[in-house]
Design a protein that fits this description.
- The chain has a domain at 4-179: 2-enoyl-CoA Hydratase, Chain A, domain 1 (Alpha-Beta Complex).
- 48% of the residues lie in helices and 16% in strands.
- It has helices at residues 29-43, 66-69, 75-91, 107-114, 138-147, 150-159, 165-170, 183-195, 199-211, 217-232, 235-245, and strands at 4-10, 13-18, 50-55, 95-100, 103-105, 117-121, 125-127, 163-164, 176-178.
- Helix 1 links the parallel strand 2 and strand 3 (50-55).
- Helix 3 (75-91) runs parallel beside helix 4 (107-114), helix 3 (75-91) runs antiparallel to helix 10 and helix 4 crosses helix 5.
- The longest helix has 17 residues, at 75-91.
- The protein is globular.
Amino acid sequence: MPVLLVEKLTPQITVITLNRPERRNSLTIELLNDLISAVKTASDQPNERVIILRGAGAAFCTGLDLKEAADQRKAHATAEMVAKTLITLAEAHVVTIAAVHGAAVAGGAGIMSACDFVVAAEKTKIGYPEVRRGLVAGLVMTFLRRQIGERNLRELVLGGELIDAARAKEIGLVNRVVSPDELMNEAQKFANSVLQGAPNAIAQTKRLVEELWSSSVKQDVERALKHHMQARESHEAREGIAAFNEKRKPNWAG
């Protein structure tokens, strides 16, 4: 079964579906590689205007597949692939819409945050619990600092608690909250709004939004990757990931 599904909703709108429902669409090297390729392919099409990103099954995406992440030999590869995915989404010429439901956690919430527009189903849980696994949510902080205030950022990345969709909208992490049945309709509604704009004007507007920051997304992600890797290679990360996989509390004192 393919880990990613790509379909044309209209000649101008592509829907990309994360397709590992049995693992709550957790991120593997294979999935990330396919996602990067799909976004680049769609973005390079002359008539393409919008990408809608969603997840199959019960959740949008629950972050790194911690079974794969437990393999230290793959630590650099997975971290670099997450960074590349976030940069690819952020630099896409087309407008990207995340349609999230169930849960968008850690790297999954990062992918959501890298999109231009987010519509979330009611009761969706969103958060960045990396510190509870001995990790640092460095890569996603690149986007959080652009989207929410510092107090809210500190609450999310230091406390590591999940928040609901309503709270996410309140702090600016989500644009719309709708019933699960209306999720794709709302995503399509915004996509149709985008199609009313001139293609080059929208692409230029996206570039300007990026240029107004003192540093680019790519620069920030590359800087954050260093901190992420320092944590990934630590004893705390090995213990936190092992504790998650073994369904026990981590022993930080060990």
